[in-house]
Amino acid sequence: MLKLIPDRIEIRSGKQFIVLLNNRTAHMLDLHIGDRVKVKNGKYEMTAILQISEEGFLDEHIGLYMEAWKQVHARRGQRLHISLCDKPASTIYIKEKLQGKRLSADKIDEIIKDIVADDLSDIEMTYFVSGCYIHGLDNMETAELTKAIVKHGSHLNFGDRLVVDKHCIGGVPGNRTTMIVVPIVTSTGLLMPKTSSRAITSPAGTADTMEVIANVINDAGKLQKIAEKVGGFITWGGGVDLAAADDHMIRVRNPLSLDPEGMLLASIMAKKHSVGAKRCLIDIPVGPQVKIKDLKHAKHLRDRFIQIGKLLGIKVKVVFSDGSQPIGNGIGPLLEAQDVMKVLKCEPDAPQDLREKALYMAGVLLELGGKALPGFGYRKARKILEKGIALEQMEKIIDAQGRKKLPPNAKLIYKVKTGKEGKVSHIDNAVIARLARIAGAPLDAAGGILLRKKLNDKVARGETIYEIHCDNEDRMNLAKEISRKNNGYTIREK
To answer: 464-474 b/e with 16+ CB inside 10 Å = b?
Structure first.
């Protein structure tokens, strides 16, 4: 065991503990980048990952990143005990997956335990993701991965009460059905504790849109109380430790956009399993512009969702939806929130496509939850909406989570007009989403796109097809320039 003088390095490493040795000291101890070392200061100790500096660092000194310094209560001038640690057994199992071997439940559990404990480096986690990407995960492995993710995170427990949930694979701008479905379903007495994501590459996630009107960062204890009080919530999944390992793996998947199918399924099902869901609706948008391009792939995913659901004790219903154009009129947090409230208030200018899709999905969940007879779910959902019950329930959810004052509309509005007369025959989702992000969404809640025309709508020459909403002049100028080159609409002339 070596005794070294600690130096504090003013760099944050996240949750992982990182220490730094100079090249000479590391060579003397036969240590290499990525090795694990145990650092002990009296009763305080930690396992840290080693980085090596070529120069500028003194012999007999060890650098501790800020989290590591705090963990062992280090002080300048003292000496810390340093010793070499073996790599976790999970690294052996990761190597087995890279070799194409099937992993047992125990091995998957060990990997996930070490991921949550920050005992695996990003490189080691990336190798695990790569092994799953190259060789895949069968249904049993996927179910065991789901269970492990839930086991090593927080979860909610509602006893024998029936919990329902929903998820959309994504890829369609707008599509804020969750914020309409949850109040409809929970108004009947069903529990629907909904965790949602923020935008990664889209103009808004459900959590971004809900955050316009309510707090979406809550711990598991508070969420449990909210659900027991009002029947459900709509919160940001990343703000509560319900699937911590999944957040780690998503982080290392993003740079190369590695999305192993088994991990995608486990990621979705873990979020459902962690809130105790026994009935689940999966929405798979299908179309050339979204994640799932054709019906064959959609059916393959449907079958896997249903089979994995059975292994987890969750009854899964999968629906295919149209991914050919945005859902709703607003693209961006504030504009989407306004769409949702218009639907809940049954206002005449509420987007009918968003209303109808939400009613259909709420109807399916009412049937799954035993609150409507087969074939009568849509009718019951529509009655709940039209009688104002859904709006009243949404107000209760907002108050329970913490009501927010709506931000003002964007200061700048630019109308994009067509130079042709005819019918809208195609809307490019990617162009519309990009323009909304350039306009500021999702970080600027008011930024985005307000659609004035949808597929098959008639347009006159010079008529507005959509508006760009923005609070920043430079962003607006860039959005204008891009829209002039390609506005994302195809007009079929008469």
So the answer is: ebbbbbbbbee
pLDDT value at 25 more than 90: no
What is the identity of the amino acid at 219?
Answer: D
Are 364 and 426 part of one and the same domain? no
Return the residue matching tokens 């249903």.
306
- Catalytic hit among 7, 122, 259, 353: 259
Residue 267 resides in a domain: yes
Whether 238 and 247 have beta carbons less than 8 Å apart is answered as yes
> Residue 11's domain spans which residues?
2-85
451/266 Cα distance (integer angstroms): 35
Helix (H) or strand (E) holding 263: helix 261-274
**Residue 3: count of CB within 10 angstroms of its CB:** 12
Asked if residue 451 and residue 334 are part of one domain, the reply reads: no
pLDDT score for 56: 63
Considering the domain architecture, whether residues 76 and 108 belong to the same structural domain is answered as no
Per residue in 365-390, pLDDT tens? Answer: 999 999 999 999 999 999 999 999 99
Residues 275 and 219 in one domain: yes
The answer to whether residues 69 and 8 touch, using CB atoms and an 8 Å cutoff, is: yes
- What is the C-alpha to C-alpha distance for residues 470 and 209, in angstroms, rounded to an integer? 16
Q: What is the pLDDT of residue 259?
A: 78
Write the CB contacts of 425 (distance below 8 Å, at least 6 apart in sequence): 455, 456, 490, 491, 492
Over residues 212-255, the pLDDT tens digits come to: 999 999 888 899 999 999 999 999 987 777 777 887 887 787 77
| 177/145 Cα distance (integer angstroms) | 28
259 is a catalytic site residue: yes
Asked if residue 366 belongs to a domain, the reply is yes
Q: Write the pLDDT tens digit of every residue in 273-285.
A: 999 999 999 999 9
Confidence of residue 97 (pLDDT cuts 50, 70, 90): very high
Question: Which of 44, 64, 85 delimits the end of a domain?
Answer: 85
Instruction: Please name which of 65, 158, 168 lies closest in space to residue 118, comparing C-alpha atoms.
Output: 65
Same domain, 184 and 281: yes
For residue 431, give the H/E element and its range.
helix 429-438
The residues that bridge with 414 in the sheet, in sequence order, are 468
- 422 lies in some domain: yes
- Which residues does residue 192 pair with via DSSP β-bridges, in sequence order? 232
